[in-house]
Design brief:
With 167 residues, the chain is of the alpha+beta class. It has two helices and nine strands. Helix content is 26%, strand content 34%. It is elongated, with a radius of gyration of 21 Å.
Amino acid sequence: MNTPTLVTSLVMAALLVVLIAVLIQAMMRGWRRRARWQAEIVGTLPPLPDIVGPVIVPATKGLYVGSTLAPHWNDRVAAGDLGYRAKAVLSRYPEGIMLQRTGAGPIWIPDDAIVDIRCEKNLAGKVITHEGILAIRWRLPSGAEIDTGFRADDRRDYSKWLPEEVA
């Protein structure tokens, strides 16, 4: 390779690296801006209860897909740590649903806040060909409704979570 070609290649590589860095920074700035805007809508999550009754639906292992502002399946919530996927365990009690996530805080969904539990093909940017995401629509203390998505390791476990007329 001759010297002018080498210099041109190095300059182009440096420009490409700078362009990629600028794009990543813009994406991160957009995510932080979205989180600030949504913090007002989402408000604070319900506190964890001190005592819960016996388990109604035993622990279901899987993946916390994320939460979205209802009814938009692709409007991911970035406020707090709700926007990050994580391994999780979902359990139901008489008082509500506990979603314990690895590497993030637990999410408590009070029973009186649950609007709907259903299966979806897509939620929070995750698209599956079959209805493989358990979507829980619930009302936050702020009054906003969100859909929280969970993909179980074994999709047959969804029958325990769905209302009787659907299952």
